[in-house]
Amino acid sequence: MSAVFDLNKPIAIGCDHAGYEYKEAISKWLQEKGYTVKDFGTSSPTSVDYPDFAHPTASFVESGDAAFGILICGSANGVAMTANKHQQIRAGICWQNEVAKLIRLHNDANIICIPARFVALPLAADMIETFMHTAFEGGRHGRRVEKMACS
């Protein structure tokens, strides 16, 4: 089994307007736990375009400067689709703890995407906790993950 994330690195986080309140609460929660958070915005609940925040978050994770990433929007689909355009990103949408565990175990996900309009904040925090402390299983799953990239 592979190691979990290097939690000495900052955790990248970004959102659109629908995820703003969750981003603020999750950032505070992570900082209270002693983690460093790199916030890529947005900085208010005013309507914005999610790619403007998902791309910088994904780029920071892809560069290796982040432990992992968190993206939040209403359904999580827009931020996940945007982040997954980056070749080294494996962003997964989570709506329950078991999914957060499986995207790490089987898919080596490096960004967790939270649908703020469909999960309660305490569940979002639980999913992030599960995600950040679950290692990639490797083995047959490693072979599959290696086949994901287009290049």
TrEMBL record:
One of its GO terms (molecular function) is ribose-5-phosphate isomerase activity. Transmembrane segments: none annotated. Keywords: Isomerase. Its EC number is 5.3.1.6. The active site is at C73 (proton acceptor), H106 (proton donor). InterPro entries: RpiB, RpiB_LacA_LacB, RpiB_LacA_LacB_sf. D-ribulose 5-phosphate binds at D16, H17, G74, S75, A76, N77, G78, N107, R117, R140, R144. The keyword Zinc does not apply. GO terms for biological process: D-allose catabolic process; pentose-phosphate shunt, non-oxidative branch. It comes from the Bacteria. The keyword Membrane does not apply. PANTHER family: DNA DAMAGE-REPAIR_TOLERATION PROTEIN DRT102 (PTHR30345:SF0), RIBOSE-5-PHOSPHATE ISOMERASE B (PTHR30345). Belongs to the LacAB/RpiB family. This is Ribose 5-phosphate isomerase B. It comes from Panacibacter microcysteis. The gene is rpiB.
